[in-house]
Amino acid sequence: MSNVAVFRNYLQSRDIYMEEVQEESGGVFFRTRQGFDNGGSVVIVAAFNELQDIVDLQILGLASITNPLKKESVHNLLNELNFNYRFSKFLEVEGNISAQYSIHLGDKVLDAEFLMDTLLMLLRSAEENYPKFMKLQWA
């Protein structure tokens, strides 16, 4: 059974809905929207490459800070967070803030429970730091 099928079956067995998208490159990703208790919302993604030996977990839409005068402050915050978090990595691309973590599976069969736990860990770290990004965005 493919790693995508293992993850799909896990989601179905837990009644968790994530949209499944087949990419032209052969990769497959699952995504869903998740709201934060403090008002924000993000898109959660689990993306399998075409060989299904790497899974990129992403939290997209954490913030959008495009003011060039805030770029240094954003990068200082990202550096601080990336220093303090062992697994979650926060990124800025064209002002869009996201969090990510990659898992190399090699030829192993996916442990879907571990993948979901890791995705939830990434989501929690994003939610914990959401107020810091909002403070920068709206300051």
TrEMBL record:
<dbReference type="Pfam" id="PF10722">
    <property type="entry name" value="YbjN"/>
</dbReference>
<dbReference type="InterPro" id="IPR019660">
    <property type="entry name" value="Put_sensory_transdc_reg_YbjN"/>
</dbReference>
<protein>
    <recommendedName>
        <fullName>YbjN domain-containing protein</fullName>
    </recommendedName>
</protein>
